[in-house]
Fold:
Amino acid sequence: MTSRDWAPRGAGTDPAGAPASAGGHAGEPGEPGEPGDGTVAGGEAGGGGANPAGGDTAGGGPGIAGAGSAGGLAAAMIARSGTPEAAWQAWPDLGAWPELDPPVAADVPAALVVAPHPDDEVLGVGGLMALLRRAGVPVTVLAVTDGDASHPGSRTVTPERLVGLRAEERRAALAELGLADVAVHRLGVPDGVAAAHERLVADEITRRLDDGMWCLATYAEDGHPDHEATGRAAAAAAARTGATLLEFPVWTWHWAVPGDARVPWHRARRVPLPAELAAAKRRAASRFVTQIMPLSPAPEDVAPVPPPVLARLLRASETIFWPDR
Ligand SMILES: [Zn+2]
Structure:
């Protein structure tokens, strides 16, 4: 869900007190190149359900260059909480969108969930993934980045260590949703610069889609550059294959406001979650320890997904944008 070197779309236009900086990127994504740039990595490393505690003290990892002013700005923005969940809950439209129709169709041959970062799939559509699975629909995850840029400048955890920790967190979170055996294919694109690899991502999505499949991907105007690149790549792949693209907003809830004219609310569909599934999703979210808890008191170790951000993603129903037809 996160790399911190970015500024949400529309920042400064939010009367609810969201970030006051200009929109666009806060600075260079600034990550050192990852090995296997753009190549398809194997399956998940580690697996297993154990969720390592946060506060990893890998030590010795040099801070990431470029976490200076841009990083400071990003941290300051993250400290602000965007449009509060209470404001969304007070908006009548939120509960008035039509339900996904067909709700979760057993005649969907398979679903591919494309996640820019490890946690976007669970926080965005973890409930829908579980419902699909319960309906007998095979579900697969395509992980665009490994989320290595969530803590730029941290002296507590290195980007390399984050890759392993976040993969384990995702595995544990999926298990909470009854999705322990879902395959996760990692592309290993460097966190923060997915747009530079958009063609490769589109090709990788394309070869995993087929006519009639559902492709769940982050909304192409979600405000985070990796989320948007993922959404665009998924749209291209869906157009090539005849798959149905279901876009899910993540950071939109942060920068947008109820009734925001920049958001395609007319395409919004609700996916109500049974109470037990909503509870499972809350447990799943609690597994993303590196994202929801500060790693240390240092400013570089703030939680990228603090409680006000998480609250918007743990509603009793999920939201997707259905294609215009
Ligand atoms: Zn993300």
